[in-house]
Amino acid sequence: MEVAAAPGVDEGLRSELSKQGIFTVKLQDIYNWGRKNSIWPLQFGLACCAIEMIAASMARYDLARFGAEVFRPSPRQADLMIVAGTVTKKMAPQVVRLYNQMPEPKYVIAMGACAISGGPFKQGYNVLKGIDRYIPVDVHIPGCPPRPEALMHAFMTLQRKIGEQTFAGPGRPRHLDPEAPSEFPVPGLGEDDIVPAKNEQVWEAPVMVRG
Amino acid sequence: MADYDPYQFLVVFLVVAVLFALFPLALARLWAKKFSPQKPGAQKNAVYECGLESKGSAAIQFKSEYYLYGIIFLIFDVEALFLFPFAVAFLKLPPGASVAMLVFILLLAEGLAWAWMKGVLSWK
User: Fold this and answer.
1) Where would I find the H helices in chain A?
2) Is the pLDDT of residue A5 over 50?
3) Mean per-residue pLDDT for B22-28?
4) Angle, helix A27-36 to helix A148-163, in steps of 10 degrees
């Protein structure tokens, strides 16, 4: 099998070549193919969703099939942060700081009702109402807790998302964009609540429409 | 067949090995320069990577006295270990063995007395 960068190859020539055992592919596609099949998640569990995450990485569900079995204990070596569980307001600064310490390109899966919205603790005083208020989340998984299959579905969704990213233009990943920020502001514990309550760059409050 | 030094291939091997290691590094550096700009930051470059901010200095002073204390404990721990087989075989041993054991214990007791006199056992 040979691989060549061939953006200008027309479809007829491509199929003719593939009959001879020569596959032509764009450099962008092979770059993304490599990236999306070696996502290393951060070994980072916050609550009961982490148990499902562990189950997903073990033999029965076998996350290794997606090239994502290498859970890294250090943010420096991780590509993906799975926010697995309830993010309390005390934990939120640490989550954001860990995210900031991860190298680009980095992705986030918010796993479970708590991580995406606060879940059953939404009306409480001490749980963050969704980690997407501070860091850009790529895939949200609903469920309490979501089953390992749901996590796998999120992985496949993320792989599809990475596969569609381009080298240039608006669809490019953040690490190829010189303007994109690499660090997001870490909230601190204020007098009553964590401040700031949200990061304006990544989250805007949904507008409630009353019918 | 041409004349060549039998060690010539080692030189070739060395050069290829160094290039083999350096080429991907150079490629990655070029890639970073061309496509993926580096964006260092205070948090990204922070030493501690547990999510928490480190407090205070790592260069603190601590008491080294504890180690003397710990070594004395270790010595007497091992002494007790030697005493067990001695005690088990006590009735079958010749008198010379008992004398040897007595010397052993007295030596260690002398060490303990020395440490006591030096004030190692009192915690300051």
Assistant:
1) 11-19, 27-36, 49-57, 92-101, 112-117, 148-163
2) no
3) 94
4) 160
Q: Do B44 and A97 touch (CB under 8 A)?
A: no
Calpha distance A79→A42 (Å, rounded): 7
Residue range A24-63, pLDDT digits in tens: 888 888 989 999 999 999 998 999 999 999 999 999 999 9
**For residues B11-29, average pLDDT:** 95
What is the 3 state secondary structure string of A74-120? CHHHCCEEEEECCCECCCHHHHHHHHHHCCCCCEEEEEHHHHHHCHH
Note the helical H segments in chain B: 8-34, 65-88, 95-118
Q: Which of A91, A96, A97 to mutate to test the interface with B (most CBs of B within 10 A)?
A: A97
| Nearest CA distance, A84 vs chain B (angstrom) | 16
Q: Which of A103, A96, A79, A189 is nearest to A134 (CA)?
A: A96
Query: Can you tell me whether residue A24 is helix, strand or coil?
Result: strand
| pLDDT tens string A112-126 | 999 999 999 999 899
User: pLDDT tens digits for A164-211?
Assistant: 998 888 888 888 888 888 889 999 888 888 888 888 888 888 888 988
Q: How do the residues of chain A divide into helix, strand and coil, expressed in percent and rounded to 5?
A: 35, 15, 50
Q: Given an 8 Å threshold on Cβ–Cβ distance, is B43 in contact with A75? A: no
Name the minimum distance, in Å, from the CA of A94 to any CA of chain B.
4
What single letter denotes the amino acid at residue A198? K
Long-range pairs for A12-16: beta carbons < 8 A, 24 or more residues apart: none
Contact status of B37 with chain A (Cβ, < 8 Å): yes
Residue B1's pLDDT band, with cuts at 50, 70 and 90, is: low
Interchain CB contact of B59 with A (< 8 Å): no
B35, B36, B43 member nearest A97 (Cβ)? B43
In terms of pTM, does the model score above 0.90? Answer: no
